[in-house]
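Structure ticket #2291
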Amino acid sequence: MARHADEYLVTARVKLPRRRVERPLRQVSKRLLMALFVLALTVFIVYIDKRGYHDNADNSVDFLDSVYYATVTLSTTGYGDIVPYSDGARLVNVLLVTPLRVVFLIILVGTTLEVLTERTREEWRLNRWRSNLRDHTVIVGYGTKGRSAIQTLCATGLRKDQIVVVDPSGKVIEAANAEGFVGVLGDATRSDVLLRAELQRAGQVVIATQRDDTAVLVTLTARQLNRNAKIVAAVREEENAPLLRQSGADAVITTSSAAGRLLGLSVLSPAAGTVMEDLIQQGSGLDLIERPVIKAEVGRSVRDMDDLVVSVLRGHRLIGYDDPAASPLQLTDRLITIVRADSALGTDHSD
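Resolution: structure written out below.
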């Protein structure tokens, strides 16, 4: 319970999917090797032209003096006790040693520059993400229900950048990022957390929390922030479904009852249970879809349709296929049909 409470106290923040980068230890090791290579190259350049340098201590430059000069020169210390005095040595310093000094400094401060660059890039990505996000889908809870909902949505063609996951667990958000989804870390019952997910501009909200009371609070908060979004919520107990509808949910799925009914149907008829499971598994076999009536279908009977029509949605009224009121079809109707998964992806029902 203490760990669960601590997770909800975490400051809400948006986490965009990260690009794959090298491990920090490998990056540091690579830069250290590059710095040592630059140092060794500078020592070699100075040593082969040691006669062009003057040491104020003994008037000669040996290998140790070359290492010393290269070190103080690359680090921009420059004590001045060893100096190039020949024209060739000075020309080499201008053309080679000075650029190597710059490279050496870039390598040393590369980590700081990378951090600043990464922060700037991340801030730019976040601002661009906020400005482009419209009519997206917010998934509250990235457990089994939330993942399954995302799989179904993606199977219908919804892009990953149009999905935002909200969860109080940092590990869960990291898992969502690894799958390519934007994550918001925080308690979804708080309005500031949902605002970070840009819920006020969302088109759909899926609430798949572990507790029914949490689902009710999230639904109330979401509906307060967005009056027009379609909110679908899942509850464990069927007695809590009316409460969610009163809180603003457009559709409520009782997970325990739905699973129980599917189990009972499979006992009575395993084949029927298989068909039902196929229908709710988007993208394979048969799909249950909702689409608008096109102009060529206006005035036709439900039984004369090419697709297998299950129900007709007329306004807020759902009419069964066998109801005489379902026919003839009207232009403003929407059809609930059963189609092949491949035809569902390839069919265009635009006007």
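Closing remark: Residues 155 and 283 are 6 Å apart (CA to CA).
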